[in-house]
Amino acid sequence: MVNPNADDSERLTDSATINTRRKFMIGSAGALGGLALGGASVGSAVAQADDEEESESEDGGETEPVESEFEDDVDILNYARTLEFLEARFYAEALENIGEEAFMETLSEEDPLRDGMFGELETIQAHEEAHAEALGAAVEELGGEPVEEPEFDFGGVVEDPVEFLETAAEIEDVGVSAYAGAAPYIENENILVPALGIHSVEARHTSYLRTLNGDTNFPNVVDAPRSRSEVEELVAPFIVGMEEPDDEEEGDEEEGEGTDAPEEENGTDAPEEENGTDAPEEENGTDTPENGNGTDTPENGNGTDTSN
């Protein structure tokens, strides 16, 4: 229930959260009737898209589905929930640190977007919080444990309005590609419907931020999806405790695997068994002549006793 005594910002957040959570729950595991049918139709469309080998992008290249890196639907929902937490916190810190006046100064006084800019950013922040809560509720519906909000560190990005707006557009774009990469692997079609609904809202956020930055808000004919590992590598600098992949360390391990093999093949130990000091002692050393043509053997073979 929305608190009637709350200020405009709080009412906006509460309303967005309640509406998004309600819509997501209707479309999740407990969905009935028409929504379930709608989920099946969307699932068929995604399956058909998966069967297509190639898709054209703006530059004439190819866009292919990414490989799945998820255990199940709960894993996908918690993955998306973490990204929504990141976006919600990113906006919240920037709005508090920078303030409305500084944001407005990034646009000219004649720009029609100037006056409503701060309010729109507040709306986006409320959307992200609502998405995170709705995704958590869906995880519980499936019998899973919603992931907790991690600790974030955005540095000075959330203190400079220009840098924030540019980075926000990039983060939103990562979120859009993350949903696109994960959606084909959602098994429960009733979850797929609201997930794609969140995906489209994230795309609207990206479009608005691109406009604020003076960029084209539809640069590609077809946007490429990103895999989980690609997304996590991009957001890792903002999440405390998330380590980025270390290619150099993997390379060092591969190089270290071949150090012992040469010692076994052509090292010092192998020659000792084949042509070392011990082997000659048995063939032509001092002990062998004693039994063949040495001093003791002639006594029994061609020595003094035999000649007589």
From TrEMBL:
UniProt xrefs under InterPro entries: Ferritin-like, Ferritin-like_SF, Pigment-catalase-like, TAT_signal
Bias kind Acidic residues: ranges: 49-69, 243-285
Region (Disordered), start-end ranges: 42-69, 237-308
Record field: compositional bias (Polar residues): 286-308
The name this protein goes by in its record: Ferritin-like domain-containing protein
A Pfam family it matches: Ferritin_2
Lineage: Archaea, Methanobacteriati, Methanobacteriota, Stenosarchaea group, Halobacteria
